[in-house]
């Protein structure tokens, strides 16, 4: 089996209820992400954390150096787990993510985090385009209600639409339970 890494994308304080940009279902998604982090740690597999900061203090959330831009306590990295700082939707763009994965011989990525319709979509598509096998854990991801031309798209529908699209051509999309029951985290 190819070497596998867990990519924990943007589970940061601003996405939680007291933050600047709260997501629907973020607590449950973070709890599932924490379960997956623990499973990867127990299997001695690579965990890579992604942390987004905008480059301007005028950003609506994740402002540079703010408490809101810090990783949430539910998913804090250990000293041996890298934290990749990004400034764009795609976690590979202008970051060391691919170099870290290549250094460890990683070929399979398991993706969790936020937001389903933005950074999860971006990293999953980019990873697939770069040749990685990708699994997205849908119930370890969260998003928020969206709006387009005056039409409100509830978070659950936005999430389902993006998971469906990723599952069509870019990733295997499974639940936390399905993933853990499939023993995919065994060494």
From TrEMBL:
<protein>
    <submittedName>
        <fullName>Cysteine hydrolase</fullName>
    </submittedName>
</protein>
<dbReference type="GO" id="GO:0016787">
    <property type="term" value="F:hydrolase activity"/>
</dbReference>
<dbReference type="InterPro" id="IPR050272">
    <property type="entry name" value="Isochorismatase-like_hydrls"/>
</dbReference>
<keyword id="KW-0378">Hydrolase</keyword>
<feature type="domain" description="Isochorismatase-like">
    <location>
        <begin position="5"/>
        <end position="147"/>
    </location>
</feature>
<dbReference type="Pfam" id="PF00857">
    <property type="entry name" value="Isochorismatase"/>
</dbReference>
<dbReference type="InterPro" id="IPR036380">
    <property type="entry name" value="Isochorismatase-like_sf"/>
</dbReference>
<dbReference type="InterPro" id="IPR000868">
    <property type="entry name" value="Isochorismatase-like_dom"/>
</dbReference>
């Amino acid at each position: 089996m190819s070497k596998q890494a867990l990519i924990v994308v943007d589970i940061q304080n601003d996405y939680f209820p007291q933050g600047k940009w709260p997501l629907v279902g973020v607590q449950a998604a973070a709890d599932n992400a924490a379960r997956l982090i623990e499973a990867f740690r127990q299997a001695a597999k690579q965990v890579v954390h992604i942390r987004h900061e905008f480059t301007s203090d005028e950003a609506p959330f994740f402002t540079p150096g703010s408490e809101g831009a810090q990783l949430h306590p539910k998913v804090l990295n250990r000293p041996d787990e890298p934290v990749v700082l990004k400034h764009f939707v795609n976690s590979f763009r202008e970051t060391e993510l691919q170099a870290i994965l290549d250094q460890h011989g990683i070929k399979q990525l398991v993706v969790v985090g936020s937001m389903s319709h933005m950074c999860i979509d971006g990293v999953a598509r980019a990873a697939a385009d770069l040749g990685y096998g990708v699994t997205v854990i849908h119930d370890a991801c969260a998003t928020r209600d969206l709006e387009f031309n005056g039409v409100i798209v509830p978070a659950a529908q936005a999430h389902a639409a993006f998971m469906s699209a990723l599952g069509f051509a870019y990733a295997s999309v499974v639940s936390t339970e399905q993933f853990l029951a499939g023993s995919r985290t065994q060494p």
